[in-house]
Amino acid sequence: MEKKTCITFFFLMSFAVSTELVYGVQKPGEKSFDRLKLFIFGDSYADTGNLPSSTSCSWKQPYGITFPGKPSGRFSDGRVLTDYITSFLGIRSPVPYEWKKLEEKWIKNGMNFAYGGTGVFNTLVDQPNMTAQINFFQQLVQENVYTRNNLSSSSIVLVSLSGNDYGTYFAKNSSLKGLEAFTKSVIDQLVLNLKRIKGFGVQKVAVTGIGPLGCLPSLTASTSYQNCSEAGNNVAQFHNQLLQQNLQRLNNETGASSVFVFLDLYSAFSSALKLKQNHPENLTFKNGLKPCCLGVNGEGSCGNVDKNGTKEYVVCENPKQSFFWDSIHPSDQGWRAVFWALKRSLPSLL
């Protein structure tokens, strides 16, 4: 699906991305981060560098041009949801699982197990699904990298599920006939995952709802980025409805009202885009539903180059004016707007 030059091998360190810039360094006089740990499971909305640099365009130009100035494995021109959540918590972004040996001194502060393109089930991307990600976590607990006592006293989990399971479903099925049953199976598996995560002793588990899928540039391109797909948004809304019902049930079972916290990305995206009746009424982002980085002449995608190294994408003049960075992912500024919309629900994580 990607051009050959998009999967050219790069050694991780050849990017010369400073981990100090991307993940932060404790300065003299700053408080230790030992007390609070954040663990992240999910997909590209939360991944900060787990996908292989040999295959993922998140490690290629122009990703990362806003922050840290070079590709850092994030599917954005800058920060992603993970980074904004950690800014609220007052901690550094956890080390990606694939970096654990490079950043050993930081692993006690949590870890990011999210891999772009994945879901609760296997997807079109051959990377660890959520069950496998939790297996990685379990292994570290068994090795006493993280103890259950530690986890029960000072840990928060962020679970990101942005819709890759549904993308895979539609790639394999042309009919909506089995979608309702499939959605229920996604939620059932997600609930099993959440119970398993809670079983390690973590105190809080934040779970993202799915954003308005029908407003992704990959779907709005057919209308010149003017109209959202009602059918796509309905898929997200049904998923979110079932998810909220199940989170409420899980909280009732635990005897606490806010162990499992729902992060309403659908409302946050809609608020940022100022959507009204599926049409963008945008007061903040000049480019509305149009991504900043997109393929030339409707072909290719952000980061693609041809066999001669010629760019097959264009980048807008000012990424801050675009909510979406590429055909699926928000820009740094887009995530900032989402974060502000979510801020009222974030104190429940503490």
Automatic annotation (TrEMBL):
Give the matching InterPro entries: GDSL (IPR001087), SGNH_hydro_sf (IPR036514)
Report the record's Gene Ontology biological process terms: lipid catabolic process
Name of the protein described by the UniProt record = GDSL esterase lipase At5g03610-like
Per the UniProt record, the lineage of the source organism begins with: Eukaryota, Viridiplantae, Streptophyta, Embryophyta, Tracheophyta
State the PANTHER family in the record. OS04G0650200 PROTEIN, OSJNBB0059K02.9 PROTEIN
Q: Which family does it belong to?
A: Belongs to the 'GDSL' lipolytic enzyme family.
Q: Which GO terms describe its molecular function?
A: hydrolase activity, acting on ester bonds
Instruction: Tell me the keywords, alphabetical order.
Output: Hydrolase, Lipid degradation, Lipid metabolism, Signal
UniProt superkingdom? Eukaryota
- Signal sequence coordinates: 1-24
